[in-house]
Design brief:
The complex is a heterodimer of chains A (about 300) and B (about 250).
Chain A: H1 3-29, H2 37-53, H3 60-80, H4 86-104, E1 110-112, H5 121-126, H6 135-152, H7 156-166, H8 168-172, H9 178-204, E2 206-208, H10 215-229, H11 235-258, H12 266-300
Antiparallel strand pairs in A: 1-2
Helix pairs in contact in A: 1-6, 1-9, 1-10, 1-11, 2-3, 2-4, 2-9, 3-4, 3-9, 6-11, 7-9, 10-11, 10-12
Chain B: E1 2-11, E2 19-29, E3 34-39, H1 45-53, E4 60-65, E5 68-69, H2 75-78, E6 82-85, H3 99-107, H4 121-134, H5 151-163, E7 169-173, H6 181-198, E8 202-205, H7 209-214, E9 218-223, E10 226-232, H8 233-238, H9 241-247
Parallel strand pairs in B: 3-8, 3-9, 6-7, 7-8
Antiparallel strand pairs in B: 1-2, 1-4, 4-5, 9-10
Helix pairs in contact in B: 3-5, 5-6
Classes of the chains: A mainly alpha (about 300), B alpha/beta (about 250).
Chain lengths: ~300, ~250
């Protein structure tokens, strides 16, 4: 792998780390599979692209977070106030967002942002322009978000959200409104997913209406790889795992790209990583049981 | 005090499976009273508890607690006034969170703190004292995940969580029934001590006639959604196990 490819993967890895924080909040903390992701990721990217096109790249950071949060709130309301199943709520928002995303992108399926100033331009011009220069911005940003999240999940509101995912019945008996906890959790989760999309747009200098397809799987793959690297026993460890997993995932993808495999096979590979990782414990259990039965049989013989 | 007035609840209304769980049910519980509630399966005990706690709502009638009408108050808002411990020890605590975090969640009740408040040193000292009083050695395991504790330990913590901020009313729903005999005795002792110390108004559902007779200050027997027996003081002292058994209609 070339240096450029390596640093490119690490840069993307830190952006995807922020995105994976969002997946961690919905899938692990709230314990709800949220499929809004594929839509809110593009929505964040589109909002960020508009800011870049209007010469305000930094505004892209809060803008992509805000629109992502709004998408999360819609899904949460569908779930809590309208009684629609969690998976379907996410699919509905994601589907609706496709039209909204196109509208935000001024009805173009692709917005190129080349030659436009973005949040990374000042670093390249004033500090260094070697491969990986974007990490000067991305590493601190990821760390700050990680620390804010660790802090937040120790507050009363954060504890309520965690307990809602862990044992909703207990939470209701503790005077906390589980609906509110879910709405805040989904808003937070999708704001980070939107931010991930917004940063990817500025890094890759383009937005495509289909860039969100399969992002849930990408996020889960990163999360699972992270959990294999760092056992998640607390929010802090879970988030550190998300960073490690996201960077590792991008490096794996970069490594695959150096082989003769076509780039179009990446989605298939991501899906396989998730399927194998989730299936592994089940197969391990079956194998162990078979082994035990065989040994018992040998003892009795 | 708790004032229940002409409360009715029918399930599967208008179908062949219709079941009138509570029928024009009225009862009053005065401050500091400890009621033990007996009754066969289907006598309406659980329905009564779910109505008081707000898990379900009645067809007619009112529930007042401390002169406040709570009949249709949402469950989580009612939880500010009512502490509840369930039969299943897994129900009352969040398994993947630590003892300290679980206590912090229940301590939110009625403290009126901001949503961004974090557990302080004083809070932690208070939790430690409360855990020490349980006498289970849990005060040194505040950072242990609750899921790693035994059923008895979890139920003791649930009890602590329900009473740490003194509730206006404590509902105990056969809370020792799923525990092994030793743990059940320990949790029962703990319950009596906490209730006596805090003078907490309590209703306890139980299937054990012994427990119903020997704990609390008043005994009620429910049958077919109505009160079949309601005794306290001398009458309660005198009644025998057999007389009580005979009062179960079926």
């Amino acid at each position: 792998m070339s240096t450029t490819a390596f640093f490119g993967a690490v840069e993307l890895g830190f952006i995807y780390a922020i995105f994976t924080f969002g997946i961690f909040i919905s899938f692990r903390i709230l314990n709800i599979p949220d499929l809004t992701t594929d839509g809110s990721f593009v929505l964040g990217a589109a909002a960020s692209a508009l800011c870049v096109l209007n010469g305000m790249p930094y505004l892209g950071i809060p803008a992509s977070m805000l629109v992502g949060a709004a998408a999360g709130i819609v899904t949460a309301l569908l779930q809590t106030k309208c009684g629609i199943q969690p998976i379907l709520s996410g699919i509905l928002t994601m589907t609706g967002l496709y039209s909204i995303n196109l509208a935000v992108m001024m009805n173009k399926s692709n917005l190129p942002l080349l030659m436009m100033r973005n949040i990374f331009t000042p670093i390249e011009e004033n500090i260094i322009s070697r491969p990986g220069f974007r990490l000067i911005l991305l590493i601190p940003l990821t760390l700050i978000i990680l620390l804010i999240l660790v802090f937040f999940f120790k507050t009363q509101l954060g504890l309520s959200i965690r307990a809602t995912g862990d044992n909703a019945e207990m939470v209701r008996a503790s005077s906390i409104d589980t609906d509110t906890a879910k709405i805040v959790g989904f808003a937070l989760s999708n704001s980070l997913i939107g931010l991930g999309g917004g940063l990817v747009a500025q890094l890759q200098q383009s937005v495509d209406i289909n860039m969100g397809a399969g992002m849930v799987v990408v996020g889960l793959a990163s999360l699972i790889i992270g959990e294999m690297l760092i056992k998640s026993t607390s929010v802090l460890r879970g988030l550190i795992g998300a960073v490690a997993g996201a960077v590792a995932y991008r490096l794996v993808i970069a490594a695959i790209l150096t082989t003769n495999l076509p780039a179009s096979s990446l989605k298939l590979i991501s899906a396989l990583i998730v399927a194998i990782a989730i299936a592994a414990p089940t197969f391990r259990k079956k194998l162990l049981l078979r082994e035990q039965i065989r040994r018992n049989g040998a003892d009795h013989a | 005090m708790l004032d229940i007035h002409f409360l009715s609840k029918e399930f599967n209304k208008g179908t062949p499976d219709a079941h009138l769980a509570l029928n024009q049910f009225s009862m009053k519980v005065t401050d500091g009273e400890f009621v033990t509630l007996l009754g066969g399966n289907g006598s309406g005990k659980s329905t009564l508890f779910n109505l008081i706690a707000g898990s379900i709502f009645p067809d007619s009638g009112t529930i007042r607690l401390e002169d406040k009408d709570i009949t249709f108050l949402p469950e989580h808002r009612r939880a500010l006034l009512i502490g509840r411990v369930f039969q299943n020890p897994l129900t009352g605590t969040a398994p993947n969170m630590t003892i300290e975090e679980n206590l912090a969640i229940s301590y939110m009740r009625g403290t009126g703190r901001s949503l961004l408040h974090r557990t302080t040193k004083q809070d932690r000292t208070f939790f430690r004292e409360q855990l020490y009083a349980l006498g289970l050695g849990l005060e040194n395991r505040m950072n242990t995940r609750i899921g790693l504790l035994s059923g008895g330990q979890r139920q003791a913590i649930t009890l602590l969580m329900a009473t740490m901020v003194k509730p206006k009313l404590l509902l105990l729903d056969e809370h020792t029934a799923a525990l092994d005999p030793q743990s059940a005795v320990r949790v029962t002792e703990l319950t009596e001590r906490i209730i006596a110390e805090g003078k907490i108004t309590t209703i306890m559902v139980t299937h054990s006639i012994g427990t119903a007779l020997h704990t609390g200050s008043r005994l009620m027997l429910l049958d077919g959604g109505r009160i079949a027996m309601d005794i306290q003081g001398e009458a309660r002292q005198k009644i025998t196990r057999q007389e009580l058994l005979d009062s179960y209609a079926h």
